[in-house]
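Re: [ENG-882] Designed sequences occasionally contain unexpected residues at chain ends

Forwarding the minimal case from QA. Structure tokens:
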């Protein structure tokens, strides 16, 4: 945490032309220590997320109606469609609702009220695989292991490193 009183004191001293309390080297060492500490915390969070996700997927894969592919992707058919299946080079229109395994919503075209169109290969690996298995008109719940999602990097503040993700995906159509 930042000590606001010390920060204010340092700014005042600097504006008054006083000699800095710490050398440039001391400040750099403190910054490096802080960055290392943050990196360690993020690595720890990533290891915990990976273990939690793996356990969730192992248990989930035993549920009736859940299919696990060779890659580890899991899906559950909510509504079976009877249209064609997209191929890797297609563009598709979908509605989706994405959550972490704890149920926290991180993105949803459903909540925005507007479907999205994109290329089958322009998304995370788990989506690319699932979309090519889905007939148009289908609605599936897909469970994506971290290695088929955003991996060790995560994605912004909502999706941490090694997070398994859940999406409800409705394949509305193939866009020509």
């Amino acid at each position: 945490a930042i000590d606001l009183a010390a920060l204010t004191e340092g700014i005042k001293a600097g504006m008054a032309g006083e000699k800095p309390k710490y050398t440039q080297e001391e400040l750099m060492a403190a910054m490096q220590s802080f960055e290392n500490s943050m990196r360690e915390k993020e690595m720890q969070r990533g290891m915990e997320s990976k273990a939690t996700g793996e356990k969730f997927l192992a248990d989930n894969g035993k549920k009736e109606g859940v299919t696990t592919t060779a890659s580890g992707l899991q899906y559950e058919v909510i509504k079976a469609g009877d249209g064609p299946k997209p191929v890797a080079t297609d563009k598709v229109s979908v509605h989706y609702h994405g959550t972490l395994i704890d149920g926290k919503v991180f993105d949803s075209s459903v909540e925005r009220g507007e479907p999205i169109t994109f290329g089958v290969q322009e998304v995370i690996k788990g989506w690319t695989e699932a979309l090519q298995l889905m007939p148009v008109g289908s609605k599936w719940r897909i469970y994506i292991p971290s290695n088929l999602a955003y991996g060790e990097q995560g994605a912004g503040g909502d999706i941490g490193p090694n997070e398994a993700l859940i999406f409800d995906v409705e394949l509305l159509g193939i866009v020509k």
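QA comment: On inspection the terminal residues look reasonable. The mean pLDDT is 93. Proposing we downgrade this to a documentation issue.
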